[in-house]
Amino acid sequence: MLKGVLKKWNKDIFGNIKVKVEEETKKLEQMQDQFEKGNVTEEFTMHMVDQENQVELLLQQSKHSGSRNQEQNGTMTMTGV
Question: Is residue 14 part of a domain?
Answer without folding.
Answer: no
